[in-house]
Amino acid sequence: MHHPKRRFVLILTAGSALMLIMAVLSLRLGAVETPFRQLVEEIVQRDGVVYAYRLPRLMIAVLIGINMSLSGSILQGVARNPLAAPDLMGITAGGGLVTVIMILAVPQYSAVLLPFFAFAGAIGASLLIYLLAYNKGIKPQRLILCGVAVSSGIHAVVTLLVVKFAPSAAQALVWLKGSLYARSWEHVNVIWPWTLVCGLLALLFSHQLNTLLLNEDTIRSLGMRTDRVRLFLIALAVGLAGSVVAVAGAIGFVGLVIPHLARLLVGPNYRLLLPTSALLGAILVTAADTAGRMLMPPIEIPVGIMTSFIGAPYFLYLLLRTKKS
C-alpha cells in the first residue's frame, strides 16, 4: 500500500474512533446527564429525550459537518483558491437573506416552509454569482471575486434589515448565528437526501476535481468541457451548503477550515481528500455543538458561533500565509 493511502486508512480509523467518542458525549451530555445504559435503552426503544431530541440533533450535526466540508472542498477545487468556501462565496448569505425577509415579513410563517425559502435563497445567490462571473467561460479567480462581492452585499442588506426591524429580529439573529436548538427528525429528513446524493456525486467526480487543479491549457488539451464541469460541481456545492442553511442557518468556517486540514493530512488527491474532509467536518461540528451546550449552561452557544471561534483565527492565518507566498 502506498504511503498516502496507508496514511489515509490510519486517519479514517482514528477519525472514526474520535467521531464515536464525540457521538457518545453528544448523546449523554445536556441539561441533564444521561447514563450510558439509559442512553442505549432509549435508542433501542425509540422513546425518551435521547431518541426524540439528542439523537436527531447529533445526526444533523454530523450531516452539517459532511455537507459544509464537501461543499468547501469542491469550491476550492473549482476556484483553485484556498479561500473559497460556501460562507465566503454568498451561498449561505443568500439563504440567510431570504430567511430573514420571511421571518420579518411573515411573523406567522410556517416552520415547514422555512427550509425551502432558505434553499431558494442559496440557489438564487449562486446563480447571480455564476452570471456575474461568466465571461466567455468561467475563470476561477473571477468566480471567487464575484462570490466575495455578492456575499458582502447580501450581508450588508441583512444587517440593514436586522437594525431597522430590531425589536422583531431576535429569531432572525438566532437563525443567522446557526443553531441546532430544537431540531427534530423532520429536519434530518430535509438534509440527509442532499448529503447522500450530492456526496456520492462529488466522490464520482473526484477525478474531474483533480483535473481542474491543473492549468487551463493542460485542461483544454485533455478535452474536458470545463465550463459544464465547473457548473455541475458548483451545483453540487450549492446543494450541499444550501441544505445546511435550510435546517440550521449560517454555519461559518467549516467549509474553509476542514478542507485545508484534510489536505495537510492526506494531500491534494480528491479521492482521499473528500472522504477525509467529510469525516473531519462531522467531528468538528459535533464537538462544537456539544461544547456550545456545556460551556454556559443553561444557555446554549449556537454552533455557528462555536465554529467561528475556531475558523476566524485560521482564516487570518491563511490570509497571512497567502500574502507571504
Automatic annotation (TrEMBL):
A Pfam family (short name) is FecCD
**Keyword Ligase among record annotations:** no
Respond yes or no to whether keyword Cell membrane is given for this record: yes
Superkingdom field: Bacteria
Gene3D superfamilies in the record? ABC transporter involved in vitamin B12 uptake, BtuC
CDD domains in alphabetical order: TM_ABC_iron-siderophores_like
Q: Which residues form a coiled coil?
A: none
Residues annotated as transmembrane: 55-75, 87-106, 112-132, 144-170, 190-210, 231-258, 301-320
What InterPro entries does the record point to? ABC_BtuC-like, ABC_transptr_permease_BtuC
Where, subcellularly, is it found? Cell membrane
User: How does this chain sit within the bilayer?
Assistant: Multi-pass membrane protein
Q: What is its main location?
A: membrane
Q: Which keywords accompany this UniProt record?
A: Cell membrane, Membrane, Transmembrane, Transmembrane helix, Transport
Family designation: Belongs to the binding-protein-dependent transport system permease family. FecCD subfamily.
Q: What is this protein called?
A: Iron ABC transporter permease
Native organism is: Paenibacillus alba
The major lineage groups are:
Bacteria, Bacillati, Bacillota, Bacilli, Bacillales
